User: Fold bis(5'-nucleosyl)-tetraphosphatase (symmetrical) from Salinicoccus kekensis.
Amino acid sequence: MKHKAALKLIEDKLPKKRYEHSVRVAETAKEMAGIFGANRDKCYLAGILHDYSKYDDLGSMYQYVTKYNLDSALLAFNSELLHGPVAATIMRFEHGVKDEDIYYAIANHTSGRPQMLLVEKIIYVADYIEPERDQPGVGEIRKLVFEDKNLDLAIYEITKMTLKHLLKKNRPIYNRTIECYNYYNMVKE
Ligand code: DGI
Ligand code: FE
Ligand code: FE
Ligand code: FE
Assistant:
C-alpha cells in the first residue's frame, strides 16, 4: 500500500483526532528509523495503519480472532488490546499488506512481546512518545530514544510504566505484556 492510499484509508475510517495521532506516530517512527537504521517507508506505513481498528465493534473483533486463529487469550480482553492484532489481520487479508515487519508492528503495538523486530519496536515506542503525548515520564523515554539511542531500555521503561498504570487501575494484564516486560528487563543495559 502506498503512503497516500494509507493516509486516505485512515482519514476516512478514524475520527480526526485519532487520524492526527496516527500521522504523528508515523512521522515519529520515520525519524526513529533514521536513528536506528530501519526502513523508513515501513515505519511510516505501520505508523499510519496501527490504530485502524481502534473503534471497531467488539463483536466483529472477536470474529476476526476466531476466523484467523489469533491468540484466543485475546477473547478475554476488550478493544484496547484487540485493535492491534485485528488491524494487522485486516491489513494482511483485506488490504493486501503482505509485509511481515508491518504485520508484526501493527499486531503488537499495544502489548509488545519478547524479541520484537526492529520496525515493531519502533512503532511500540513511537506510539508512546509521539509529540502530543504528555503522560508522566514520557520526557525520560524521549531522552532514552533521541539522546541515548537505547531502544531496548526505552521499551523496558514503557512496559514498566504501562504495567504500573494497569495495576493501579485494576485492569487485567495480558500475558504478552508481562512477557515483554520480563524479556526487556533481561536484555536492557
Ligand atoms: O491505541 P493507543 O491509545 O494509541 O495506544 P495503545 O494501543 O498502545 O494502548 C491502548 C491501551 O491498552 C492503553 O490504555 C494501555 C492498554 N494496555 C496495554 N497493555 C495492556 C492494556 N490493557 C490491558 N487491559 N491489559 C494489558 O496487558
Ligand atoms: Fe493503539
Ligand atoms: Fe502503545
Ligand atoms: Fe496509537
Summary: The chain has one domain: 3-136. Residues 16-36 form the longest helix (21 residues).
